[in-house]
Amino acid sequence: MIGLTIIVAYLVLVPTLSLWLSGRAAQPGNADAYLGRKHDLPWWAICLSLVATETSTLTVISVPGVAYGGGMVFVGLAIGYLLGRIVVARFLLPHYRAGGMTSVYQYLGQRFGTPVQKLVSATFLLTRALAEGVRLFAGALPVGVLLASQHVVLPLWVLLLLIVVLTLAYTFFGGLRAVIWSDTIQFVVYLFGAVCCVMLLVQSAQGGVFGRLWDAGKLGLFHGHAHGAAFWTDPFTPLGAVVGGAMLTLASHGTDQLMVQRVLAARTLRDAQRALVCSALVVGVLFAVLSGVGVLLWDRSGGQSLHALGLAGPDAVFADFIVHGLPPALSGLLIAGVLAATMGSLSATLNAMAGASVTDFAIVSRRVGAWLRLGELGVARLMTVVWAAVLIGAASLFAGGTGSAVLFGLSVAAYAYGAMLGAFLLGMLTSRVRTADVVPAFGSALVLTAALVVFVRPGGQALGFTWLVPLGAAAEVGIGICLAYLRGAQRA
Q: Model-level pTM?
């Protein structure tokens, strides 16, 4: 019961503290604060919020499982993340800040017109709903296991509804300020819990644990085989992790409203750049700690396979250890940490999707507001509730999966990231491309990426998620430029 007591206390304290810290965001009519238009948040809180948003439950649960089988490869991926964020901070953020934007897709509206803005924003909303559905489902799993160990069995939909309602408690009223402050608190909770696990596992390990891990190749940052089919299917080779990871973060933190919305809420451009680059360093630390948990659990089990341990998949490695391998108080703290990751990512997603819905589909949102007699803040809150219901449905679709949720979630996001990044590159790199070129190029890039995912399987395996972004972006840029030149030639 100690573990459950800690979880309940956490669920009560975090919404309360987040709303208190959000301050004026909860005042009636304050839509600017709700959507992050006031640009008054400290860079360090935005930095931690970025980390909490991008890592989520998938990281806390899945990274130890990936490390159990593959070593510290997510730390190598963080190197690519750092390079990509430096590019975003240097070249993309100045464009967004200069335009006074609250939705990153407003840039596309200014450059190509509202059809492209709405098209890319709608793609973001759809793919984000699917990706966040995976995160929400993964967050409910360890909670269900803990409750079952206490002889309390709840249906999956009840757990999902409970998590979403608790998250809505502060997201609905506090807006982006409450989201960022809650993310900061929640990140500290699950990082502290993971560090405690590493210390406990090191203390209980037999002597020479790091030597054994080194000899087994578990401390390597990359997978060494970068030839043949593995070059395209393994996202953790040096080239796949560094180059592919850089392109992935260039797309996620440069074109995804979920991430860009937080950065645009900073006080100055320099603060926004500082928050973005420092978040990559913090992500690297988190990846190192969680990967350390995974490799230490591998040593603890004597290197047994997941099948020999009776585990359904890699995501069960850490969840099983939390419930059965830790003292009750620490187990409760780690479950609270998993909930923290779930709620942090969920609240950020809900606010970003509400912001994109209101900003990028302004005419529709004004009509809805007039019909329901709601102001802009009321419409934003309504969209927050609507997207919460959509995410519950999306999470229910992923029940029964046995693979790594973090890899699947990254693949879902990466599917659209290439086309989205390509649209921004066309806008910034050439003046010849027009709306008539971008729309078919964007659609073609999505179709091509889908074909690569479904039909191109080197060695019988799917393409690594880190390659989907550069391939999709290159396809759109190439098609868009060709269409622009063809249009120019026809006029000539």
A: 0.83
